[in-house]
Amino acid sequence: LPVAVLLKDTKLMDVKLGQLGTWLAMRDFTPGGILGAMRRGYMRYYNKYINVRKGGLGGISMVLAGYIVLSYMWSYSHVKHDRRRKYH
Amino acid sequence: MLSRLVLRAAPAALRALPPPVAVGVLHTTRPLHTTQQSLAPVPPLPEKGGEVRHGLIPEEFFQFLYPKTGVTGPYMLGTGLLLYLLSKEIYVINHETAAAACILTVIIYGIKKFGPDVAAFADKLNEEKVASALAMKNEAIQTLQTAIEEEKKEQWRAEGRSYLFDAKRNNIAMLLETNYRERLLMVYNEVKKRLDYQVAMQNLKRQKEQDHMIQWVEKNVVQSITPQQQKESIAKCILDLKALSKSAHAAV
């Protein structure tokens, strides 16, 4: 019977809500670790949506939509002045 | 690449197991990413990518909300979210909204109209790439096969080396024999020459002795004929001749 896995190695979806704080503290925050996490995320996305035989529109359109949302968030302080009402 | 399979297989396998065991099994599947042997038989590419609805939202989101809210749940969430953003003016409607609306209309129209053609074209390009790679692989396999057959043929040829050596041995024996006989002939010729020389020497010597002796005898004989004997012999010859002439006259 396999040994119970450490909290450090569980995936995010399997972590219980109470353990979330400890789990987050255990993650690897060194530059190498962050780079590894970004690479893993990129490879996950890439292998799921782009590195296939018949890739669809969703692969790039999700990236573009994310970029649109991010740029809107960055320019919100500038867009705020175009609001029609002052109080909501 | 194997990570994709593992990522897809592991959750499915884990959901099948009871929860306490799932946590332990996960630990053993992790090292599969990092060993070198995982690259060797490359798994083929999946046919289609992850499902995306309306081109923007992955299908997993809808499946995630389905047990609790049914089919319309995510759409209600989307509508509520949109109304909230608009009413609180977190999303501000200004000139950019109009521009975005026009652009999006054109884009969506273009995609709907030309999407399948572009997809077919891209598929054709991909097919060509895959076909050329496959052709290269097959060609490499073919060349290796022919190389293997050639090698086997060479091995078969190498088995005949005993015949080759026999022929060479025969050649060498013949050469030796020829050489031996040549030398034999040479020895015979040389010996014969020497013997002939000796024989010729003896003959010459005897002949010279003979000649010399004859000459010496003649010389001595001629010397011994003194002048008186010569006169007497000449007179006798004349008498004889006269007698002969007389007999000859008488005969006539």
TrEMBL record, chain A:
Presence of the UniProt keyword Metal-binding in the record: no
Residue stretches spanning the membrane: 56-76
GO biological process: proton motive force-driven mitochondrial ATP synthesis
Cell compartments where the protein resides: Mitochondrion inner membrane
One GO molecular-function entry: proton-transporting ATP synthase activity, rotational mechanism
Domain of life: Eukaryota
Presence of keyword Ion transport: yes
Topology in the lipid bilayer: Single-pass membrane protein
Gene Ontology CC, one term: mitochondrial inner membrane
Keywords on record: Acetylation, ATP synthesis, CF(0), Hydrogen ion transport, Ion transport, Membrane, Mitochondrion, Mitochondrion inner membrane, Phosphoprotein, Transmembrane, Transmembrane helix, Transport
Assembly with partners or alone: Component of the ATP synthase complex composed at least of ATP5F1A/subunit alpha, ATP5F1B/subunit beta, ATP5MC1/subunit c (homooctomer), MT-ATP6/subunit a, MT-ATP8/subunit 8, ATP5ME/subunit e, ATP5MF/subunit f, ATP5MG/subunit g, ATP5MK/subunit k, ATP5MJ/subunit j, ATP5F1C/subunit gamma, ATP5F1D/subunit delta, ATP5F1E/subunit epsilon, ATP5PF/subunit F6, ATP5PB/subunit b, ATP5PD/subunit d, ATP5PO/subunit OSCP.
Family designation: Belongs to the ATPase F chain family.
Job description of the protein: Subunit f, of the mitochondrial membrane ATP synthase complex (F(1)F(0) ATP synthase or Complex V) that produces ATP from ADP in the presence of a proton gradient across the membrane which is generated by electron transport complexes of the respiratory chain. ATP synthase complex consist of a soluble F(1) head domain - the catalytic core - and a membrane F(1) domain - the membrane proton channel. These two domains are linked by a central stalk rotating inside the F(1) region and a stationary peripheral stalk.
Full protein name: ATP synthase F(0) complex subunit f, mitochondrial
From TrEMBL, chain B:
Keywords annotated in UniProt: CF(0), Hydrogen ion transport, Ion transport, Membrane, Mitochondrion, Mitochondrion inner membrane, Transport
Gene Ontology cellular-component terms listed: mitochondrial inner membrane; proton-transporting ATP synthase complex
Subcellular location: Mitochondrion; Mitochondrion inner membrane
Top-level taxon in the UniProt lineage: Eukaryota
Pfam families: Mt_ATP-synt_B (PF05405)
GO molecular function annotations of the record: proton-transporting ATP synthase activity, rotational mechanism
Function comment: Subunit b, of the mitochondrial membrane ATP synthase complex (F(1)F(0) ATP synthase or Complex V) that produces ATP from ADP in the presence of a proton gradient across the membrane which is generated by electron transport complexes of the respiratory chain. ATP synthase complex consist of a soluble F(1) head domain - the catalytic core - and a membrane F(1) domain - the membrane proton channel. These two domains are linked by a central stalk rotating inside the F(1) region and a stationary peripheral stalk.
Subunit structure and binding partners: F-type ATPases have 2 components, CF(1) - the catalytic core - and CF(0) - the membrane proton channel. CF(1) and CF(0) have multiple subunits.
Family, as annotated: Belongs to the eukaryotic ATPase B chain family.
Designated name of the protein: ATP synthase subunit b
